[in-house]
Amino acid sequence: MHHLFGLVLAQKDLSRAGDLFSLEDAEIEASLSEALEQIRIISSSADYQTNDNDQAVVEICITRITTAIRETASIEKHGKALVALWESCLEHNLKPSGKDEDTPHAKIASDIMSCILQNYNRPPVMALAVPVAVKFLQRGNKELCRNMSSYLSLAAIAKADLLADHTDAIVKSVLQGRKTLRFWL
Question: Matching InterPro entries, A to Z (predicted)?
Fold first, then answer.
């Protein structure tokens, strides 16, 4: 892993996290999957939900990683690690608090979802992402569900057969009141 990424993630050093943006995309591209795995470990810790420092470090690192993936066109290379982090969010609370604020894991899920599903026209990425995307439809976060339905509709247009195995889950979600998915019927 790139030295600065390793330092920021190992020490959860918020004061150095912004320095990641001074690095060239190509300089860090080879270490992005490893950094995503470290973020998965940090975000799975018992105190992550209440640790503002760790949440800020993770948010900055995810922004830097997704930017580098986009700029280096390396989504296929890092897709598996992105999907693994995204799927790990399903193990945590995704429902907004009473003040309509997303939970830390819903924020991660939203950022990763946008990075992955903007590549709806890349079948290898969608083959990894669609099974996880469908799981998010059942999790009760309306904003994630609304965004997911938009991306899934694009994926259906680009490569409908990727969604064929998931029509039951999509229909169940519609029947359970996920109104944003009604376009499927």
Answer: Melted-like (IPR039888)
